[in-house]
Amino acid sequence: MLEKPLCFRGTDTDSFRNCKRLPDEQCNQKFIKISLPENSMNEYEEILSIVGSAPWYRLTGMTPKVLGDRVVVEMEIDKNKHLQALGTAHGGAIASVLDSAIGLNVNREVIKMGKTAVTAQLNIHYIRPVAEGKIVGVGMPVHIGSKVTVGYGEVRNEDGELIATGTATFYIINRKFKD
Length: 179
What we know:
By secondary structure, the chain is α+β, with helices and mostly antiparallel strands. It has helices spanning 41-52, 55-60, 91-110, and strands at 8-9, 20-21, 62-67, 70-76, 116-126, 134-144, 148-157, 162-173.
């Protein structure tokens, strides 16, 4: 049975404290939808190019992209890199997509404070295996604090089927993304 995607409309776009789940009839997106102002996505695309060229992203084949008012992380499952012994994508590959998707969406808010958020804890629920094709992760901040932030995310396959969900906690540090 196909899991229904979560769609959210934020009423407090600075902190996301008042995000509310939309009724299913108002939700026709495959991924989380957050109503956000288009304030800084162009500036954030520059950071995404830095992140996307980092060694880990190149090694795993992950690509961060702006999609509307959020950041998604895509990865084409490579049978020579991402599969474990049972022939499906290794949980670590899926975890990398989820961690990056949540982290990049959290950092979109944290960089406004002149800081960066780094993962402190990641909790994943694997829903179904995937062996081929593209997977896409998306996340959203749930709480932005001064020292710690929390986010939620999903990874889906090309058909929109839910592969994994998770939450992550991030430390906010006094460091910026490098060029």
